[in-house]
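HUMAN:
Just now I want nothing more than another pair of eyes on a protein record. I would be glad if you read both lines and explained how they fit together. I have put the entry right below:
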Amino acid sequence: MAGWLRWLLVLPAAWLSWIVAVLVAVSFYTIAETLCPREQMISGFCIAPWFEHVEGAILCLGAGLAAALITVSCTLVAPSHRRVVVVVTLLAGSAIALSMGSRSGHYLALVTAVVAGLAAACWLRRGRWLDETRAEDR
């Protein structure tokens, strides 16, 4: 595939990764809602004492999954300069997580996203995905 076309696909890859993470999180939320006892459902909201913790865990799962998928997809779609791409993606993602997490007050999700993005970047580095010679082979 032409290099310029792969560069054009980096942002759609990030967007698609985010959509996948949101769909996974929404699916988990839907499953959690079905586990809520009927007597603890009020106006379509679960008021079970455990549900708030499950909601927080699902939020963290979605944030972390989004960060990891976006970091990996942007880096692997880029035709070259993958070391730069992974750093830029990690920094931009961390800035977005900081903005979203601090505005919403979901600090644990913020930390989860940054740690997951960093873990994905380390995984890419350990697997030699950032080697430019390997990028040309694909």
